[in-house]
């Protein structure tokens, strides 16, 4: 089983109220046209609205369970012909070269690449797939030192919701190491069925955050030129207080 397979059941419910980045990606799709590549596409949260807008896309993810849900959602919307889904490791993916006009890694997914080697391998793979005028977008959270120092391993209830007739409580434990720029994350899902039986599922993973100029240097090492840095999905200038760190880059030819 893939590390992220247990999360697939809850992913859409966790993100059901988050649509902030969809207009952002629609606008970039309008600017660049298709075909479009999404790395770590999950259950298709961003793929579906872009496909519904008429764009042709390819989504890559390592989790079979995530991709299975994405296929079901695409079929339900009659969008199967618009999207190609590929089960692959983004560090080693082999896709057509000079093919995509836009590639993106949505909300924090790039942070699952926790070593410089993995980050560079992924960026190199993406660079090969982009056209000469192609665009790469990486969307990260903007690291706040005060928030990070509070991530000390305490158990917190993040949200509760109904799912398939069960009551779900999601607890989160985050322990961060500022020196290593690493967060050790645990998701705990407690499902309470109608008869009162509780089923617990736990998922543990590690994420690495990046700072603004660290990201720019990483992109440069991988053969990209930074075109813009935004602090929000509304294309606001990046500042210390920005909620997001969004890099827009192009292959250096």
UniProtKB/TrEMBL annotation:
Domain of life of the native organism: Bacteria
- Please provide the record's keywords in A-Z order: Methyltransferase, Transferase
Protein's GO biological process: methylation
The UniProt record lists the keyword Isomerase: no
Molecular functions per Gene Ontology: methyltransferase activity
Asked whether the keyword Transferase is assigned, the reply is yes
- Output the InterPro entries linked to this UniProt entry: Methyltransf_25, SAM-dependent_MTases_sf
Database matches in Gene3D superfamilies: Vaccinia Virus protein VP39 (3.40.50.150)
Domain (Methyltransferase): give its ranges: 36-134
Q: Which PANTHER family match?
A: TRANS-ACONITATE 2-METHYLTRANSFERASE, TRANS-ACONITATE 2-METHYLTRANSFERASE-RELATED
Query: What protein is this chain from?
Result: Methyltransferase type 11
Q: What is the lineage of its organism?
A: Bacteria, Bacillati, Chloroflexota, Chloroflexia, Chloroflexales
